[in-house]
């Protein structure tokens, strides 16, 4: 299954975002004979395939209007099945930019979780890059694999169930990102896997953890340390009543970035 749509019309295998008048969203994979059950009626896939274009508005069997849109990366991340808290899209976007993750990048990730960050990185490194993701819990790897299969990105990811204390199989990679409780225990393994000047990143929930990591980065041949926190505030997009929504996505974690350097000789 391909991640991206290939034509003007809705086709078999496309991922489709259905948006109702009430702004409720559904992401579905289009298939012959398929049906999507909603609270406002049934949308039959055969009524869409090669008959409707992206951006069209269609009616369910009881006349409720849905807009047909290609899902964004943010939609895919937000709607994956999860057993754990995923990395938030607001943080993911900054991680991708800060660590220079793009087509062709070779990335090691540890702490796969439900695969939200894995999905985003796989989308960015395609078609020639690759993600090697490590997770100690097999059930989490299985869920992440299913999530990546569903969106058609699993070919860009190698899943490994293993304790990263044993080290990484890969070397000379561009990026290592750790979403684990005590990342400072694995800095030697990270440095061995990274190319010179390679990017290291971690996500931590508390400042005392950040302090420990910073001290250990200095002792393990890492430099150019940065610590950041991303806050996101949504607004009600109504021209006559434009104002912030009642809640905002505030603290979700501290992002720590550094680079692998050579020891002074």
Describe the structure.
This protein is 22% helix and 29% strand. The radius of gyration is 21 Å and the shape is globular. The termini are far apart. It has helices at 73-78, 89-98, 116-125, 138-150, 187-193, 207-219; strands at 15-20, 25-29, 35-38, 41-44, 57-59, 65-69, 106-110, 130-135, 157-161, 173-178, 194-204, 222-228, 235-236, 243-244, 254-260. The protein folds into 2 domains: 15-71, Vcp-like ATPase, Chain A, domain 2; 74-260, Rossmann fold (3-Layer(aba) Sandwich). By secondary structure, the protein is an alpha/beta fold. It is built from 6 helices and 15 strands. The mean pLDDT is 93.
Overall number of strands: 15
Q: Which architecture of the largest domain per CATH?
A: 3-Layer(aba) Sandwich
Strand content: 25-35%
Unreliable residue stretches: none
CATH class descriptor name of the largest domain: Alpha Beta
Largest sheet entry: 7 strands, mixed
Radius of gyration, taken over Cα atoms and rounded to an integer in Å: 21 Å
Helical coverage, percent range: 10-25%
Query: How far apart are the termini?
Result: 51 Å
Tell me the series of helices and strands, N- to C-terminal: EEEEEEHHEHEHEEHEHEEEE
Number of helices: 6
CATH homologous superfamily title of the largest domain: Vaccinia Virus protein VP39
Integer count of domains: 2
Strand order of the largest sheet: 9-8-7-10-11-15-12
Structural class: alpha/beta
Average pLDDT over all residues:
93
Judging from the principal axes of the Cα atoms, what is the shape?
Answer: globular
CATH topology (fold) name of the largest domain? Rossmann fold
């Amino acid at each position: 299954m391909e991640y991206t749509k290939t034509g003007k019309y809705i086709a078999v295998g496309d991922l489709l975002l259905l948006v109702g008048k009430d702004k409720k969203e559904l992401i579905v994979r289009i298939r012959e004979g398929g049906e999507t059950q909603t609270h406002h009626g049934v949308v039959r896939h055969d009524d869409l395939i090669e008959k409707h274009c992206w951006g069209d508005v269609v009616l369910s069997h009881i006349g409720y209007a849905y807009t047909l849109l290609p899902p964004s990366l943010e939609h895919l991340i937000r709607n994956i099945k999860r057993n754990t808290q995923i990395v938030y899209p607001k943080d993911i976007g900054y991680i991708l930019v800060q660590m220079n993750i793009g087509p062709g990048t070779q990335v090691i990730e540890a702490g796969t979780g439900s695969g939200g960050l894995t999905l985003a990185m796989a989308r960015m490194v395609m078609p020639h890059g690759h993600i090697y993701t490590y997770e100690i819990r097999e059930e989490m790897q299985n869920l992440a694999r299913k999530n990546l299969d569903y969106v058609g990105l699993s070919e860009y990811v190698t899943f490994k169930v293993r304790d990263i204390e044993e080290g990484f199989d890969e070397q000379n990679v561009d990026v290592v990102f750790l979403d684990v409780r005590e990342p400072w225990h694995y800095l030697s393994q990270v440095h061995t896997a990274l190319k010179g000047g390679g990017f290291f990143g971690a996500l931590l929930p508390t400042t005392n953890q950040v302090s420990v990591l910073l001290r250990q980065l200095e002792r393990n041949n890492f430099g150019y340390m940065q610590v950041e926190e991303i806050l996101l505030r949504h607004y009600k997009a109504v021209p006559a009543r434009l104002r912030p929504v009642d809640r905002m996505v505030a603290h979700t974690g501290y992002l720590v970035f550094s680079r692998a350097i050579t020891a002074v000789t």
